[in-house]
Specification:
Blueprint (H helix, E strand, L loop, with lengths): L17 E6 L2 E6 L2 H6 L4 H6 L15 H15 L16 H11 L6 H14 L16 H13 L7 H12 L8 H9 L17
Antiparallel strand pairs: 1-2
Length: 208
């Protein structure tokens, strides 16, 4: 089988329609319809996290340590949320996104179309040159991450012939296949019915 030339991982949502809602410190990104997006402008924090232009004056070049500190304070003041705290990105470790997708799939929780698009784009952006992923997105390719992310892509609707999935599967096979995934990966694969529970070593609950 040869990979297709087109890929759904190249698709993107309209980034101007995303809004970050914070309720008592609980953050949730919402994808507004076009009319609501026009009525509710994006905050600087939202535009910053989405990688969009902030359209604000550049900070003056610092001449002293004090100037640098003031610039830093001014920058973070722009990103402060209405509730008074600051949001941040929590990503990188390769057990976060798979766990979310697997749990939603197992519990029959709908994964919104816009989530699927951006999840696939996120993985395409962070894939290593060899087609796999590391335990951390900045790390070298591992069986654990590559196996779980491949399953994630398939659950998000990506065909096995699409380039991102094709290369991930090829890399996984060169590493010995999904049977070499560590214990935590075996847990998830077994929950999904992709690996036999008899191949999972028991873990005493006290260790958790």
């Amino acid at each position: 089988m040869q990979p297709e030339h087109t890929s759904s991982a190249r698709s993107t949502t309209d980034l101007s329609r995303w809004r970050l809602k914070s309720t008592e410190g609980v953050h949730r990104w919402l994808y507004l319809n076009e009319e609501d997006a026009k009525r509710q402008s994006q905050s600087l924090a939202e535009r910053y996290f989405l990688g969009l232009p902030l359209n604000v004056p550049d900070l003056p070049a610092p001449l002293t340590f004090h100037d640098s500190a003031v610039n830093g304070l001014t920058f973070y003041q722009r990103l402060q949320l209405e509730e008074g705290h600051w949001a941040c990105s929590y990503g990188g470790p390769s057990f976060l996104l798979p766990g979310l997708v697997f749990a939603m799939y197992i519990s029959n929780t709908t994964i919104l179309p816009e989530w699927k698009i951006e999840m696939k784009r996120y993985l395409a952006h962070h894939v290593n040159e060899d087609g796999g992923w590391g335990l951390h997105l900045a790390g070298n390719t591992t069986v654990f991450a590559t196996a779980l992310y491949y399953v994630v892509l398939r659950l998000l609707g990506m065909e096995p012939s699409e380039p991102l999935a094709f290369r991930a599967r090829e890399k996984l096979l060169t590493l010995g296949g999904a049977t070499g995934v560590p214990q935590w990966g075996k847990f998830w694969l077994s929950c999904l019915g992709l690996y036999g529970w008899d191949g999972v070593n028991p873990v005493p609950p006290e260790l958790w």
